[in-house]
Design goal:
With 568 residues, this protein is an all-alpha fold. It has helices at 39-50, 61-91, 102-122, 132-159, 163-187, 189-199, 202-228, 235-240, 243-263, 320-331, 342-350, 354-374, 377-385, 397-456, 460-466, 468-497, 510-539, 544-563; strands at residues 287-289, 300-302, 311-312. The protein is globular. It is found in: Membrane.
């Protein structure tokens, strides 16, 4: 068992540029320019090895950390949204019965479009790579949504004088900002994970996911820390206008810097313009394959002619379908590579193997539980723990108590983020003993138990202490499902190399599988947005929020125990 461990296998060694021999037992390339063998001969003879399992080069720790910085920035902004979205919406006058509906629009769009984005990124022909164009576009959308969400009320107050119109426009602008930010922030996770899988070797994927979890926790901690401070009475708050403008300044700066760092962390190799090797001259193709000590993983190196620079074109698990199409296209030059349409993409998800489907259902239950608690936690602290009222006059004691509860709620969520970062290391220690399935179960169970205790004993001390269990769930949701996806793909690659794999599985890329998991996040938001507001009205108290989270998490525990496939 190697996931989340620091075991370092012997690296795959590439021949020096210009080397003319492969060192394989059967296949020897004497000369590229001699013309003794054609491109098709090489592909035919080496296809089972080349297109079975090919691994990108190893990445340094610094590169992986830079790549993971986008998760720090994303979670920083997510923390700001989670802490302030409900208070901001209630403060501009949105009725309490409708405040959960703001989460419906974004996830509905995401649930419909996420598989298409994931599949489209699998086939993107941009010279900048497959994933980064999508990441950049979604990153800009996140910044726009954050701007409208935190500044909408101030802008409307400055431009509109009529009180009734001011309230309506403030609600519209703030809601649009929340929807746009949430849509982009949820969408960006799939391309980021697929980007990591594409450019990293198997062991680096494990390390990269670990750094993602670590930086996610740290980003959330800093985001909640910024939200917990009283900026309204500070010199910076007076300079920028209000507390929300200060928070926006730090959020926008953090996201912009770390998005740029992420985009330039590890270069992507763009796909061939026509999806085949036919664009290369016949005398420029030389396939060099070496085997790693891990048994079957190698690297693909194209040694060009003297006129061309040596070029490394690694292919990861998500590129297997493209590798297959490259082989067929070289044999049939006029055959175009198959692209996924909406129908074929949905069919690929519906017809996915049962262990993928069970993983998606479990992910849905986990995110439903997590979002029930996280999206309304600061409101829970303000109304239940501190007995405040968000609808009271802004200069009243009841409203001040509510604001104080929101600030303390931010501190609790900061504890959650720190515990998430720390638990990412605890996972590494527990993994050899209980495995991935055991870690999955523990994360859900601890969260379910903790939230039930918060609902039963809603006092300040108990609530703040138990906020640490939120981090256990957060780290679990951000790492374990994607580690399982990586393991499932590795098993399929080995099976295909041995000729025992299921041909139907070749219609899925990693982008689609990551998108399927992210779709569960969107679906969870739809469930929470559609049902939680009505549930609060029926119960007459927001305490039902944490009790609902506990129930869904414990149901997830049962599903993990019965249906999630164990992997070594």
């Amino acid at each position: 068992m190697t996931l989340l461990t620091e075991d370092q296998p012997q690296p795959c060694r590439l021949p020096e540029p210009g080397t003319r021999t492969t060192g394989l037992d059967h296949y020897s390339v004497e000369s590229v320019d001699s013309g003794e063998s054609t491109k098709e001969d090489y592909l035919d003879s080496m296809e089972p090895v080349v297109f079975g399992v090919v691994e990108p080069p190893r990445r340094s720790r610094g590169r992986l950390l830079l790549h993971g910085m986008v998760m720090f920035g994303r979670e920083f902004c997510y923390a700001v949204e989670a802490a302030f979205v409900t208070p901001v919406l209630l403060s501009v006058g949105l009725p309490q019965s409708l405040y959960s509906l703001v989460w419906l629009i974004s996830p509905i769009l995401g649930f419909l479009l996420q598989p298409i984005i994931g599949s489209a990124s699998d086939y993107c022909r941009s010279s900048w790579g497959r994933r980064r164009p999508y990441i950049l576009s979604l990153g800009i959308m996140m910044l726009m949504g954050l701007t409208l969400f935190l500044n909408g009320d101030a802008v409307v107050s400055a431009l509109v004088q009529d009180t009734s119109l001011k309230r309506i426009w403030a609600i519209v602008i703030v809601m649009f900002g929340v929807v746009l930010f949430d849509f982009a922030a949820d969408f960006i996770d799939g391309p980021v994970k697929a980007y990591l899988f594409d450019v990293c070797s198997y062991i680096d994927k494990e390390r990269g996911l670990h750094y993602h979890a670590l930086l996610t926790g740290l980003g959330g901690a800093f985001g909640y820390l910024v939200g917990a401070m009283d900026w309204g009475h500070s010199s910076l708050g007076r300079l920028l206008g209000s507390e929300y403008q200060v928070i926006y300044f730090f959020s926008a700066l953090t996201w912009t810097v770390f998005l740029i760092v992420h985009l330039f962390s590890i270069p992507e190799i763009p796909l061939f313009k026509d999806g085949s090797l036919d664009s290369l001259p016949p005398n420029a193709l030389l396939l060099l394959i070496t085997h790693c000590s891990s048994g079957g993983y190698g690297s693909l190196h194209d040694s060009m002619s003297k006129e061309l620079e040596p070029d490394l074109r690694p292919r990861s698990f998500s590129a297997l379908m493209e590798a297959n199409s490259v082989t067929s296209s070289s044999k049939q030059p006029n055959k175009e590579q198959k692209r996924m349409t909406l129908k074929s993409c949905l069919l690929a998800m519906i017809n996915m193997p049962s262990h993928y489907r069970c993983l998606c259902v479990t992910h849905l239950l986990g995110w439903t539980a997590f979002l029930c608690n996280m999206l309304f936690f600061t409101d829970f602290m303000g109304q239940i723990v501190y007995k405040g009222n968000p609808y009271a006059d802004h200069n009243s004691t009841a409203y001040e108590r509510y604001e104080r509860g929101v600030e303390i709620g931010c501190w609790g969520l900061c504890i959650n983020a720190v515990s998430s970062a720390l638990y990412s290391y605890v996972q590494r220690l527990l993994l050899p003993f209980i495995g991935l399935k055991g870690l999955y179960f523990v994360g859900y169970f601890v969260f379910g138990l903790g939230t039930s205790l918060i609902g039963l004993f809603p006092n300040i001390t108990t609530t703040l202490i138990l906020c640490s269990v939120f981090g256990v769930m957060s780290s679990t949701l951000y790492t374990i499902p994607f580690n399982l996806i990586s393991e499932y793909h590795r098993e399929e690659e080995v099976q295909r190399k041995l000729g025992t794999g299921n041909p139907a599985g070749q219609d899925r890329g990693t982008g689609v599988d990551c998108a399927a998991l992210t779709c569960m996040v969107q679906l969870a938001q739809i469930i929470v947005g559609a049902g939680l507001g009505a549930l609060v009205n029926m119960a007459g108290s927001v305490i039902v929020v944490v009790l609902s989270a506990s129930t869904m998490s414990l149901l997830g525990c049962l599903f993990i125990a019965l249906f999630i496939r164990y992997v070594e």
